[in-house]
Design a protein that fits this description.
The complex is a heterodimer of chains A (about 100) and B (about 160).
Chain A: E1 4-5, H1 6-26, H2 30-55, H3 59-89
Helix pairs in contact in A: 1-2, 2-3
Chain B: H1 2-21, H2 25-45, H3 49-74, H4 78-87, H5 90-112, E1 117-118, H6 125-132, H7 137-157
Helix pairs in contact in B: 1-2, 2-3
The chains are: A mainly alpha (about 100), B mainly alpha (about 160).
């Protein structure tokens, strides 16, 4: 089996993370913000699995399973919040959420 | 195997770029599914078949379908795509992109210094479950409580 450079895996994870970060910073649609958060979490999981492959043990994969759980819980709550926001404001633009009305 | 790794990396990166630049939510979701499946292929190449399965079933299957259902419920329509195009002007994304590019260059500078070759050995579900139900048992219990809390919170928040 041919080998894969360790740092290329980590650089790929960094690039995916940065793509997600750009999405979070630039988009105004809250659905895209949540999708970009997913991209970032997934990039973290990729970094853990690359580390797991580098040292040939399962610790990194265990962390990946934890990240997966976290992502699932986060998406459930986030989508609930999006539904509630759409009901109240009839829009998905995050700039309407600029004042607290209690 | 090395070629497969680079092909899947290119697919993942291109699909992710398409996600953050597309104006239609459903198109972005389908691109994200492509990206996640490419990452699953990378996991497989790196000798983590169980992680690859989880990525395909839980991420690309369950989480993305949840997104799709909510998008169908919201029924955003064509006007949002037009609004998106107005919001995605260069003056809104050039600044953050340049800053984030600096961050990426710093990360790359740190990572390029070391060079190690990975010889992928398969670390399968047996080793992973010995770890998860041995030393990480408390973390697994906490994860189950987190999921329960997420379930209750989603039910409560999305209620009318």
């Amino acid at each position: 089996m041919e080998s894969i450079p360790y740092e290329h895996g980590l650089i790929l994870a960094a690039m995916l993370f940065v793509c997600g970060l750009v999405g979070v910073l630039t988009r105004r649609n809250i659905v895209f913000v949540l999708l970009s958060l997913e991209i970032m979490l997934n990039a973290c999981g990729l970094a853990f699995v690359v580390g797991s492959a580098r040292w040939g043990d399962a610790e990194g994969q265990a962390m990946f399973v934890m990240i997966l759980t976290l992502a699932a819980a986060e998406v459930a709550v986030g989508l609930g919040l999006i539904i509630q926001m759409y009901r109240r404001f009839q829009t998905v633009d995050i700039s309407v959420l600029n004042e607290m009305k209690g | 195997m090395t070629l497969l790794f680079y092909l899947a990396s290119a697919a993942a990166l291109l699909a992710t770029l398409a996600v953050i630049t597309s104006t239609h939510v459903v198109h972005a979701l389908v691109y994200l599914i492509v990206s996640l499946l490419a990452v699953a292929v990378i996991f497989f190449v790196l000798g983590a078949p169980f992680a690859a399965m989880l990525e395909a079933i839980v991420y690309a299957g369950a989480i993305m379908v949840l997104f799709l259902f909510v998008m169908m419920m919201l029924n955003l329509g064509q006007t949002t795509a037009q609004e998106e195009r107005e919001w995605l002007q260069p003056r809104t994304w050039v600044g953050p992109s340049v800053l984030v590019l600096v961050l990426l260059l710093q990360l790359g500078r740190v990572l390029v210094g070391e060079h190690t070759e990975i010889m992928p050995v398969e670390v399968g579900v047996r080793e992973l479950s010995l770890l998860l139900f041995g030393p990480y048992l408390l973390a697994v219990e906490l994860a189950s409580m987190l999921l329960l809390a997420g379930l209750i919170a989603a039910y409560h928040v999305a209620k009318k």
